From TrEMBL:
This is Aldose epimerase family protein. Its EC number is 5.1.3.-. CDD domains: galactose_mutarotase_like. SUPFAM superfamilies: Galactose mutarotase-like.
Length: 331
């Protein structure tokens, strides 16, 4: 197990600020690279069935795209995950208005959300069969319209059994809205060799939410059974292309599992034999199959979060804890 820290020269020049690249390595051929810009995962290299490691994250073809990062690729999202109508939250009768950066909504914290912030490297811990690193960011009250002087920490732990745990901790000096998520686009074929169409997906839920014309979730929850979004048993992701948006961009409830013995998400590539199981303490996941023209269906995003377009109140002095475990296998 080891950790390396180096300045990312090209991105430092492009962003006109120092950007550090933090690399974690286990003893089984799995490694990852994190950037202090946006608390962004630049690479995640995972062995296939023959032990050959490749990057299982979709990435931009040009490094320059990480400057604006129009699809929030592989970043940490906050203070708001998903869409928030009008960019408004009401706390103790007071309305707080944040950036409206997509139609009528605040999307993923706004144009200057956590995905565009400079995080500070805060240390590493090395064990015999695991290593971890910590990055921190301080959110100033109303700097983006959201209330609270908030200390935020992201902890990444890599183990020798190819498990990655991502934890977010936050504590505010006043009641606030916090809904963080990781926005990683996975492609288990490795180095984007194939689209995700024939990859298999299991989502451990009976319900999802439809969306309105602004991409906001509608009530009530709808049964997934017999719909294009029915992944209660393993099915090819391309099954979802039967719906009107030609893919998935929907919230699924993780509070209504079909099988209490299984994790929330299992995602498999029949060719490389890589599989990814995801377990989280969050009540929902927004699944997005990159339905746009750029790299169409070359990645799938699992955004573990509180349900979007609602207040996720975190009281002053109370710690917000978000934990997601990504378990990789290849057999």
């Amino acid at each position: 197990m080891r950790v390396e820290i180096n300045k990312h020269e090209e991105l430092s020049v492009l962003l006109e600020k120092r950007v550090d690249c933090i690399s974690l390595f286990n003893n089984q051929g799995m490694s990852m690279k994190l950037l202090t810009h946006g608390c962004l995962m630049l690479e995640l290299n995972v062995p296939d069935q023959s032990g050959f490691s490749e990057n299982v994250l979709m990435t931009y073809d040009e490094l320059t795209k990480f400057v604006d990062n129009p699809i929030y690729l592989n970043t940490t999202i906050g203070l708001n995950a998903g869409r928030l109508k009008g960019g408004e939250v009401t706390i103790d009768g007071k309305v707080y208005k944040s950036d409206v950066n997509e139609g009528v909504c605040n999307l993923h914290g706004g144009k200057d959300g956590l995905h565009q912030k400079t995080w500070q490297y805060a240390g590493e811990v090395l064990g015999s069969d695991w290593c971890s690193v910590s990055l921190k960011y301080f959110h100033e009250h109303l700097s983006d319209g959201f209330p609270g002087n908030i200390e935020i920490e992201a902890v990444f732990k890599l183990t020798d059994d190819n498990q990655l745990t991502v934890q977010y901790f936050a504590r505010s000096d006043r009641d606030c809205h916090i809904n963080l998520t990781s926005h990683y686009y996975f492609n288990l074929s490795g180095n984007e060799k194939n689209k995700i169409d024939e990859h298999l997906l299991f989502v451990n839920t009976q319900y999802y939410k439809e969306l309105d014309q602004n991409g906001l979730p509608l009530e009530p929850k709808i049964q997934t059974k017999n719909s294009a979004l029915d992944f209660a048993q393993f099915a090819p992701i391309e099954n979802s292309y039967r719906n009107k948006i030609k893919g998935i961009d929907h919230p699924f409830s993780l509070e209504d599992p079909v099988d209490h013995t299984k994790p929330g998400i299992i995602y498999r590539d029949p060719v490389s034999k890589r599989s990814l199981s995801i377990q989280s303490n969050q009540p929902s996941v927004v699944i997005y199959t990159n339905n746009i023209a750029y790299k169409n269906h070359l990645g799938i995003c699992f955004e573990m979060q509180q349900f979007s377009n609602q207040l996720n109140l975190v009281e002053a002095g109370i710690e917000y804890v978000h934990e997601t475990i990504y378990q990789f296998n290849a057999k």
